[in-house]
UniProtKB/TrEMBL annotation:
It is an enzyme of class 7 (translocase). It is found in: Cell inner membrane. The chain crosses the membrane at residues 6-27, 39-56, 62-81. The transhydrogenation between NADH and NADP is coupled to respiration and ATP hydrolysis and functions as a proton pump across the membrane. Its EC number is 7.1.1.1. It comes from Thioalkalivibrio nitratireducens (strain DSM 14787 / UNIQEM 213 / ALEN2). Keywords: Cell inner membrane, Cell membrane, Membrane, NAD, NADP, Oxidoreductase, Translocase, Transmembrane, Transmembrane helix. The keyword NAD applies. GO terms for biological process: NADPH regeneration. One of its GO terms (molecular function) is proton-translocating NAD(P)+ transhydrogenase activity. This is proton-translocating NAD(P)(+) transhydrogenase. One of its GO terms (cellular component) is plasma membrane.
Amino acid sequence: MIEGFVALYIFMLAAFTGYEVISKVPVILHTPLMSGSNFVHGIVLVGTMVALGHAATPLEQLIGFVAVILAAGNAVGGYVVTERMLEMFKTSKGDK
């Protein structure tokens, strides 16, 4: 019982800390920070695939499958945004 409260406390503390850190970042830095953290999305995707591989019941398999789909979408979205951001810094052929 106590372990559950400790885990909930750690989760709440991590959520609060993450919110405070992200809210202090200037708007202009959000996209570069997201592109720099794409590797985290890949790690989350691998973790969800490992968890899905250990699923025992159909409910666990369903939850794991949804987690894999969401993690993959998150990783792909991060790379799409990074690509769009990098396109903004390229010069056009007419601008010399």
